[in-house]
Amino acid sequence: MKNIHTAIIGGGQAGLATSYYLAKHNIENVVLEKAKQAGHAWRNDRWDSFALLTPNWSIQLPGADYAGNDPDGFLPRVQVVEYFERYVESHNIPVEFETQVNSVELLSGRNAYLVRTGEGEFEAKNVVVATGLFQGPKLPAYSKDISSKITQIHSSQYRNPALLPEGGVLVVGSAQSGCQIAEELYQNGRKVYLCIGSAGRAPRRYRGRDVFRWLLELGFFDRTVDKLPSPKAKFAGNPHLSGRDGGHTINLHQFVRDGVQLLGKINGADKNTIYCANDLKESLAKADKFEADLVKLIDDFILKNGMDVPAESLPNLKDGYAVEEVLELDLVSKGINTIIWAQGYAYDFSMVKLPVTGGDGYPIQQRGVTEHPGLYFVGMPWLSKYKSGLLVGVGEDAEYIASHIASRQDNPILSK
Questions:
Q1: DSSP class of 148
Q2: Quick check: 414 pLDDT over 50?
Q3: Check: CATH 1.10.10.60 for 2-135+347-407?
Q4: Does the global pTM surpass 0.90?
């Protein structure tokens, strides 16, 4: 068994940032990452044309703020991967790749944890779980009832239109991934059917600035979970927009103009038939209202602060409201040979053999600190703030956790 002061589970942005700050405290640590290389999620779970949804200036991992010549642009997937590779190398992050963590257990009487991996065991004074909320594809149980002649993939498996079977495509989910994939497909000549949910819409730019810049100044990303209408709202899909081709707004009404068939939420499936809810107009109204509320928030902020910025009126498209509700969709008659499930990811913290989650499976903690001394979480949205899972905010939580570890009286710092 190897002894280590702090074991970090997960080598994504949260795990790397935590390791960086632990090193600043001269605390010995190891990052246990199941993937083979750095930047796994960006390398293997994004499509070929993917670009960051947030502007390049928002890349703010500690010690590696974006320093390129296009701060308002959006890095393509390949360059995001390169960024993480450089981060690991330049900061000498102690990552052990291809190391799957199977369990974390309390070592009774030892004031330490036993971390079991496929490559051996660790005894650690502290354990930081940095696996995030996007651990595995989320697929509905009824997907198994669909004919085997229909190709089904999760959005994380989609790469480009050419790799899909010929014919139409049903995309299920209208948050960020679903809408971007649907847009690429129909722009490449595919007939697309899109089951939409309640995800909102945000303008890419408004009144002379990227919307992300406005929201950051407004404190939108600094909101805490107690400001949400309900605890489950922290799992809501992010507003749809795109960073591809320099960044642009995605509008479902424009999709209709371009030939996309919009459908309500999917309720179930049976062989070659998809069943949808009669809620298309309701979902469109939610997306429209989200943008309207967001714009008002920005307008009020500008007025309150006496800012001299140009006025702007956004397009008022309504095409989606004229679409006939389709409650049953026959895949064969419509020539649909592929379904892309874009309903998000599942998460599971059962590897931690301690009571650490609530009824919704989300960790019970205060800014990442659990009631179990030496056990922490980092890198999830709403951990302390909305931005806790974003490149622009994960460093704040990582710094806090590293400082908390350094301050523990029963957990002396070890030299590396």
A1: T
A2: no
A3: no
A4: yes
